[in-house]
Amino acid sequence: MEIEIATIGGYEEVGRQMTAVRAGNDVVIFDMGLNLSQVLIHDNVETERMHSLDLIDMGAIPDDRIMSDLEGDVQAIVPTHGHLDHIGAISKLAHRYDAPVVATPFTIELVKQQIESEQKFGVENDLVKMDPGESMTIGDHGCELEFVNVTHSIIDAINPVLHTPEGAIVYGLDKRMDHTPVIGDPIDMKRFREIGREGEGVLCYIEDCTNANKKGRTPSENVAREHLRDVLYSIEDYDGGIVATTFSSHIARVKSLVEFADDIGRQPVLLGRSMEKYSGTAERLDFIDFPSDLGMFGHRKSVDRTFKRIMNEGKENFLPVVTGHQGEPRAMLTRMARGETPYELDDGDKVVFSARVIPEPTNEGQRYQAEKLLGMQGARIYDDIHVSGHLNQEGHYAMLDALQPQHIVPAHQDLKGLSGYVKLCEGEGYHMGRDVHVSRNGNLIQLVD
Ligand SMILES: [Zn+2]
């Protein structure tokens, strides 16, 4: 059976991930993501109303025109998890394929919400839920799609595996090797080891190289949780304002913040549109059981009403968890820093960033600005209370050891970012150009003729 891989997006950048695998006549697409930074550098761009071709020209979504060179039928579109760089282009591209979107329940729910807010295209692909650990048949030629449970900075993340008669294709984006996650099951390394040994073994491993230049091991989410506990408990006696911010989609982190707020005698409240969206969705789908009186407010009016209540009843009784950890100009924390909300910061108030600055000039500039403005109001900053969602080098070694792949395709980085991974693979006996295939957006890699 011919096996071919199309590296469509995310091979020259972090963002707009998309890869297609053809096994004989059957094609499976993994991820259809958005590169948000390519959108945000333009003022007031509303992607909901934009045409795919314009977004492709901006470099915001994958240029999928190479799909016409792939001779087969798309059988499934498989996003690995709900981050925008993996699902953000589904509403712009999926309708061009006569295939269902297959993903875990939380991811499917986020895809559904995105399709509902789309204003340019009618996206009518079936949305099919499949849980981690489950499999489904793909096409009529002996291929099977399996979801292996992994751990990442969003719940319900999986690595899909396409089992073909020539061996397994393991799509490894995005994960960290977490044996003690705060929500959900640990990464299923046992299953990866089995896949590496059974049948024809692993024909190809497509890997998330985000942190491939970082030594050592990415800590568990439990480490970030204990760090956060240490910080919040240390300011338990403070009788002024404490505000926290983190990734809205990081439900495990939001859970820790909510619990520790309660521990130090403050009422937690989630503020900001995306805070309400992700936490509300996770609660509706029973991934988390927040206290019944936890307030979540997204709309401007209800947020301002909540801030007024906090100011009336005393800042020392509350812990607002807000959007804006990257200093995004329109996010809640930035509005608070500019004095645009009823919440007034005083000298000595604490602002806890449970996030790392995404190392990109726009983010760095905006975050610098937000911190400066907060500082001008007297706020004191705690930052970097965070662990990455991606494997460092030791995790990469462990994955190669478990899977023993014949071929490797590094992904989810630019050339510089991929370099650490190529070097690591060569140390393990692979060779670039022979069995390590460094690709670009829009390339085809023929693995089996
Ligand atoms: Zn991700």
UniProtKB/TrEMBL annotation:
Primary site of residence: cytoplasm
GO cellular component, alphabetical, reads: cytoplasm
Gene3D superfamilies per record? Metallo-hydrolase/oxidoreductase, Ribonuclease Z/Hydroxyacylglutathione hydrolase-like
Give residues annotated as binding substrate. 386-390
The residues the record assigns to binding Zn(2+) 1 are 81, 83, 152, 174
Domain of life of the native organism: Archaea
Q: Where in the cell is it found?
A: Cytoplasm
Q: Which family does it belong to?
A: Belongs to the metallo-beta-lactamase superfamily. RNA-metabolizing metallo-beta-lactamase-like family. Archaeal RNase J subfamily.
What this chain does, per the record? Answer: An RNase that has 5'-3' exonuclease activity. May be involved in RNA degradation.
What HAMAP family does UniProt report for this protein, alphabetically? RNase_J_arch
> What name does the UniProt record give this protein?
Ribonuclease J
Gene responsible for this protein: rnj
